[in-house]
Write a structure and sequence with these properties.
The chain contains 1 helix and 4 strands. It has 104 residues and is an alpha+beta fold. It has one domain. A hairpin with a 6-residue loop joins β1 and β2.
């Protein structure tokens, strides 16, 4: 799959995350000690945070060189839970880039 095709998915995730921040649910109180953005998985003591960002840039250059498009995005998931042996954490980050954008 071309990275540019992932951009609509990344935008949808970012918009859903923004809505979650705007209206905190009652279940968020159970995960407040984990940090901002964590929500509790129903029926468990596990807290999850899904975050992301999407970037799109365009440069118009003179001298007949035309334009350049760069797109990219990041989606991450952070899962934390307390167990009998102590706290457990899982973290996954997926990054997509297309064009000449540098690492940020």
């Amino acid at each position: 799959m071309k990275p540019a095709r992932c951009l609509p998915i990344l935008l949808a995730i970012a918009m859903a995350s923004a809505e979650a921040f705007a209206e905190p649910a009652a279940a968020d109180a159970a995960c407040a000690h984990r940090g901002r953005g964590f929500v509790q998985v129903p029926g468990t003591m596990t807290c999850v945070k899904i975050a992301g960002r999407a970037v799109a840039e365009a440069d118009a250059t003179g001298g007949g060189r035309g334009t350049r498009m760069r797109t990219g995005g990041t989606v991450s998931m952070d899962v934390r839970s307390d167990t009998a042996l102590g706290p457990v954490r899982g973290f996954v980050r997926f990054r997509v880039r297309d064009g000449e954008a540098g690492e940020r």
